[in-house]
Amino acid sequence: MDLALWITAGLLASVALLGGITKTFIPKEKLAAQHGGEWTAKAGAGFVKALGILELLAAVGLILPAALDIAPVMVPVTALCWIFLMVGAMVTHGRLGQSKLVMVNSIYLVLAAFIAGGHLAA
Predict the structure, then answer these.
(1) Per-residue pLDDT tens for 57-95?
(2) Cβ–Cβ < 8 Å for 116, 81
(3) Is 5:45 a contact under the CB 8 Å cutoff?
(4) Is 44 exposed, middle or buried (0-12, 13-18, 19+ CB in 10 A)?
(5) Interhelix angle 2-25/45-68, nearest 10 degrees
(6) pTM
(7) Helix (H), strand (E), coil (C) string for the chain
(8) Number of alpha carbons in the 13 Å side-chain half-sphere of residue 107
(9) Are 53 and 16 in contact (CB under 8 A)?
(10) Phi/psi of residue 37, nearest 5 degrees
(11) Residue 52, Cα to own-chain centre: how many angstroms?
């Protein structure tokens, strides 16, 4: 079970890292021109960057606390926060009629729930 939690956390941290780098460092106009990034056209640049920073923090929070054994309770807390972030993403993509992206976000949500549940049950 521990190996499965590490693999899942690594996968989700990679997703969060990629999303965080993208939202933090790529101009929102360029993001808005890409499929899946249309929502950024109506969002403020600060909001998009803030989401990117939250995703970067999530990448760190899913791995480092357990790896360093410093406040490992932060891993399930981070996973629970990721769940809320994915609910928002699902609503946003759903409003834009992007059902495939809603499904992708729901998979990320399930992975985060597995991480949270696995760490809280241990």
Answers:
(1) 999 999 999 999 999 999 999 999 999 999 999 999 999
(2) no
(3) no
(4) exposed
(5) 150
(6) 0.93
(7) CHHHHHHHHHHHHHHHHHHHHHHHHCCHHHHHCCCCCHHHHHCCHHHHHHHHHHHHHHHHHHHHHHHHCCCCCHHHHHHHHHHHHHHHHHHHHHHCCCHHHHHHHHHHHHHHHHHHHHHHHC
(8) 9
(9) no
(10) -105, 10
(11) 9
CA distance 113 to 119: 10
Q: Which two tokens stand for residue 54?
A: 């939250």
Amino acid at 90: M
Q: Provide the token pair at 107.
A: 């998979």
Whole-number pLDDT of residue 110: 98
